[in-house]
Design goal:
There is one protein chain. It is built from 14 helices and twelve strands. With about 375 residues, the protein is of the alpha/beta class. It folds into two domains: about 240 residues, Aspartate Aminotransferase, domain 2, CATH 3.40.640; about 120 residues, Aspartate Aminotransferase, domain 1. The strands form two sheets. A seven-stranded mixed beta sheet has the order 1-7-6-5-4-2-3, with helices on both faces. Strand 5, helix 7 and strand 6 form a beta-alpha-beta unit. The chain starts with 8 loop residues before the first helix and ends with a helix. Bound molecules: pyridoxal-5'-phosphate. Pyridoxal-5'-phosphate binds next to helix 3 and helix 4.
Length: about 375
């Protein structure tokens, strides 16, 4: 790492943390696929950092260092999926522990956490964390070991005040973990606001090209017991990212600040346009002044409000599906944060979670905003 300490996110990302491959002079880091690393005649490791690739991989370390710098973290750990990162976090809890988790978040997290908590006799309390008083009351009543929030949330785009959530968790003797996937490390830095651990599905905006599955946890306090436990669990249980995925992720991250800037500008333009459309009943986007979380989002997000938005069309499921079916530029597919725009009818995927039948979720890409608006205009009209 040869970059000065004071450079900005776009410089860190564009130069992959300042890595030069010294043996070749390459400005791009190499991939080393070896699973095992050799010792010399005296049985000393040729490179003391590398023994076996379950825990030692130069390209994974380089990518983690770039992520840690972007996040304002001391350390970051990569996992083979966002869900593997979440599982590693919650596996540190003893049986019988207590957790407070935000309701109405990414369904995969809720489902896994419910199953896991039932198996491990963990008391799981789901609360609308965007309501500061409800969150404070849940922390006081239950004294959770971990408070887990997701902001902006997927697919409701609720905003949770991270600094307030950290105070609630800490006053109860617990830790705050934040799923910051929809914001990316470019727009939001939960650790600076008091969170203990920040999590991302790197599959989404961080990679940004819909071609790598990965997850990340990062902390400002690497000496904390929970971080030691997470590292040990990753090493011993083997939920590591492969070198090719880490390399692709780093390559995707070189344009992360640029992509996020463009997506956020596009998303805001589209959200405003949708808000004024007669066939749209409501728009959920924290960048809109009318959004209940806008004031909080403005203080804890910098440079934009992200690529994710949801809107309700007038009518129900048939009307929403008709709009989705007419779109030509938005791919009808799940996920978010890629350079290409995606659209989803969440009620078809998760009818049991109370998602409105008229809700359409959009991940806005880096295409021309007016092309995207023209597509939406055609589909709504
Ligand atoms: C996609 C997603 C996850 C899960 O990440 P995977 O990489 O798919 O395992 C967790 N949280 C949020 C907010 C997500 O969007």
């Amino acid at each position: 790492m040869s970059l000065p300490n004071d450079v900005k996110a776009s410089t860190i990302a564009a130069q992959a943390g300042g890595i030069i491959d010294t043996p070749s002079g390459g400005v791009v880091p190499p991939v080393q696929p070896s699973t095992t690393f050799v010792r010399d005649e005296g049985y000393a490791l040729v490179n003391p950092d590398n023994i076996y690739s379950r825990d030692n991989s130069d390209i994974v370390r380089i990518t983690e260092n770039v992520l840690a710098r972007l996040e304002g973290a001391e350390e970051a750990l990569l996992f083979p999926a966002g869900m593997a990162a979440i599982a590693a976090l919650f596996r540190t809890l003893p049986n019988g522990a207590t957790v407070v988790v935000q309701s109405g978040i990414y369904w995969g997290t809720t489902k896994w956490l419910r199953d896991f908590s039932a198996r491990r006799e963990i008391a799981l309390h789901e609360v609308d964390a965007a309501d500061p008083e409800a969150l404070a009351a849940a922390c006081t009543a239950h004294t959770p070991g971990i408070v887990f929030i997701e902001t902006p949330s997927n697919p409701w785009l609720k905003t949770v005040n991270i600094a307030h959530a950290a105070k609630c968790a800490h006053a109860a003797g617990g830790l705050l973990a934040v799923d910051s996937t929809a914001a990316t490390p470019v727009l939001q830095k939960p650790l600076e606001l008091g969170a203990d651990i920040v999590m991302h599905s790197a599959t989404k905006g961080i990679n940004g090209h819909s071609d790598v599955l990965a997850g990340v946890l990062a902390t400002a306090a690497p000496a904390a017991q929970i971080w030691t436990d997470i590292k040990t669990d990753r090493h011993d249980a083997g939920a590591v990212l492969g070198p090719f995925e880490a390399w692709l992720l780093l390559r995707g991250m070189r344009t992360l600040p640029l992509r996020v800037e463009r997506m956020s500008a596009n998303a805001l333009k589209i959200a405003r346009w949708l808000k004024a459309h007669p066939k749209v009943a409501d728009v959920y986007y924290p960048g809109l002044e009318s959004h209940p979380g806008h004031a909080v989002a403005r203080t804890q997000m910098q440079g934009g409000f992200g690529c994710l938005l949801s809107f309700l069309v007038q009518g129900g499921a048939p009307e929403a599906l008709a709009v989705v079916g007419k779109l030509k530029l938005f791919h009808r597919a799940t996920s978010l944060g890629g350079v290409e725009s995606l659209v989803e009818h969440r009620h078809t995927i998760e009818p049991h979670t109370g998602i409105p039948e008229s809700l359409i979720r959009v991940s806005v890409g880096i295409e021309d905003a007016n092309d995207l608006i023209a597509d939406l205009s055609r589909a709504l009209g």
